[in-house]
Design brief:
By secondary structure, the chain is α/β, with parallel strands linked by helices. It folds into two domains: 156 residues, Aspartate Aminotransferase, domain 1 (Alpha-Beta Complex); 258 residues, 3-Layer(aba) Sandwich (Aspartate Aminotransferase, domain 2), CATH 3.40.640.10. The strands form three sheets. A seven-stranded mixed beta sheet has the order 4-10-9-8-7-5-6, sandwiched between helices. Strands 1-2-3-13 form a four-stranded mixed beta sheet. It has a four-stranded antiparallel beta sheet with strand order 11-12-15-14, covered by helices on one side. Strand 14 and strand 15 form a beta hairpin. Helix 3 runs antiparallel to helix 10. The longest helix is centred in the last third of the chain and has 20 residues. It binds 4'-deoxy-4'-aminopyridoxal-5'-phosphate (PMP). The site of 4'-deoxy-4'-aminopyridoxal-5'-phosphate (PMP) has 16 residues, from helix 5. The site of 4'-deoxy-4'-aminopyridoxal-5'-phosphate has 16 residues, from helix 5.
Length: 427
């Protein structure tokens, strides 16, 4: 059954559409932290559809809100008022930390980043953008133009002039041997040097922790140090919180808050988890930046009542159940457990992460070389054992990614870690 669907998929969808597993899995339903495939196999979900299932699969509160709204009206357009959209915007504006914030809803992270680029380039009258090496920001023409991870950037053509900065990845590259403050100093020097050769940069866009890039871990304070330099040049700071937002990192609601002295960003983009699977993305910006466009703009489906109802119900659940606190507690235990499991494994170079966002970087034993074959094999073995995880990294995709729904229990964390341990022992 699954095989036939795979063949049909290949016959009609693009070859470049990334698919996991030699025998791709067809998920048919889910509940809590579990999903089931078309053959009836049950999996513990440690990837949540790349962090889209923020709270839990089939969370009754979200399902009910969606069904009720769909029963009334699914969509008209943002040409008319929509109560849910205004309410969700009010809550996100308040949570963003950005003063006098305005919110614009899109349908994806890509469209959110595209909009942020439109705003920043218009505001600064410049198409020069600073982006981080190894970054991922989406798949539109402008988003791939600021994506430093070349495994996900299929064209070198771009409407933007992009300059890539060091700092997103700490474990590899020329500054890997440096301690926190020296690393920050070196990255700041690199940024200053780059700016010495440019005229009028619009913005820096950065993921606080790179997601697709392999859950990297820049030291706290890096973006505060960058911010000082950016401010001197009048350059805007866009934080891409598509993976790091909504409390996933445990210590903070947004990833940028780990760099607190930076103060809030000028623009913040979000997507993925807020709709718990419904397509919501968006941009938050201070009013002056958001309102710099002097012509009309609209997203036909951005802010649709059904997705907004899902977002409101999901956000309410997240806050009422302190899922950020759960990410900190259960995520902390999980990372500790993964470190213990991996301590003696020569195939593991590093276990890193924050909250419920953990990465395990694999290498060829005895070397520093990436080991994408081992990562692929562990992914397969974990699936055999009943666990779905993700992978990422640079071109060589050798980092296992763990990012379960934020309601994960301690027992489920233990169960997943044990399956992962067995999977790691197969390579
Ligand atoms: N930014 C980041 C940090 C992402 O991880 C992603 C998706 N992986 C995107 C943007 C693009 O989001 P979408 O796939 O919803 O367009």
């Amino acid at each position: 059954m699954t095989r036939r669907l795979h063949d049909r998929h290949r016959a009609v969808l693009p070859d470049w559409l990334a698919l996991y597993y030699k025998q791709p899995v067809e998920i048919t339903h889910g509940e809590g932290r579990h999903v089931w495939d078309a053959d009836g196999n049950k999996y513990l979900d440690f990837f949540g559809g790349i962090l889209t299932t923020m709270t839990a699969h089939a969370l009754p509160e979200v399902t009910k809100a969606v069904a009720e709204q769909a029963g009334r009206i699914i969509h008209t357009s943002t040409l008319y008022l929509n109560r849910q959209m205004v309410e969700l915007a009010e809550r996100i504006a308040q949570l963003s930390g950005i003063p006098d914030a305005r919110v614009f809803f899109t349908t994806s992270g890509t469209e959110a980043n595209d909009t942020a680029l439109l705003l920043a380039t218009a505001y600064r009258n410049s198409n020069q953008i600073l982006a981080m090496r190894n970054s991922y920001h989406g798949r539109s023409f402008s988003a791939v133009g600021i994506t430093g991870n070349h495994a996900w950037s299929p064209t070198s053509l771009s409407p933007l002039q992009t300059l890539y900065v060091h700092g997103g990845v700490r474990s590899r590259g020329p500054y890997a041997h440096l301690g926190d403050s020296q690393f920050i100093e070196a990255c700041v020097a690199d940024l200053e040097d780059l700016l010495g050769h440019t005229r009028n940069v619009a913005a820096l866009i950065a993921e606080p922790i790179q997601g697709v890039g392999g859950f990297t871990s820049p030291p706290d304070g890096l973006y505060a140090a960058f911010r000082e330099v950016l401010d001197r040049h009048g350059i805007l700071w866009i934080t891409d919180e598509v993976q790091t937002g909504w409390g996933r990192t445990g210590d903070h609601f947004w990833g940028w808050q780990a760099h607190e002295r930076s103060g809030p960003p000028d623009l913040l983009t979000f997507a993925k988890g807020i709709g718990n699977g419904m397509s919501i993305g968006g941009v938050v910006a201070r009013a002056e930046v958001m309102n710099c466009l002097d012509s009309n703009s609209i997203s036909t489906f951005g802010g649709s009542p059904v997705t907004m109802a899902a977002g409101l119900a999901n956000l309410t659940y997240l806050l009422e159940h302190d899922l950020q606190g759960n990410a900190r507690r259960v995520g902390g235990l999980l990372i500790e457990r993964l470190r213990a499991i991996c301590a003696q494994l020569p195939v593991v170079r590093e276990v890193r992460g924050r909250g419920l966002m953990a990465g395990i970087e694999l290498v060829r034993p005895g070397t520093d070389e990436a080991n994408p074959e081992a990562a692929a094999a562990v992914l397969e073995a974990a699936r055999e054992g009943g666990l779905l995880i993700g992978k990422g990294g640079g071109h060589d995709t050798s980092v296992l990614r763990v990012a379960p729904p934020l309601t994960l229990t301690v027992a489920e964390a233990e169960e997943g870690a044990a399956i992962l341990e067995r999977a790691l022992h197969t390579v």
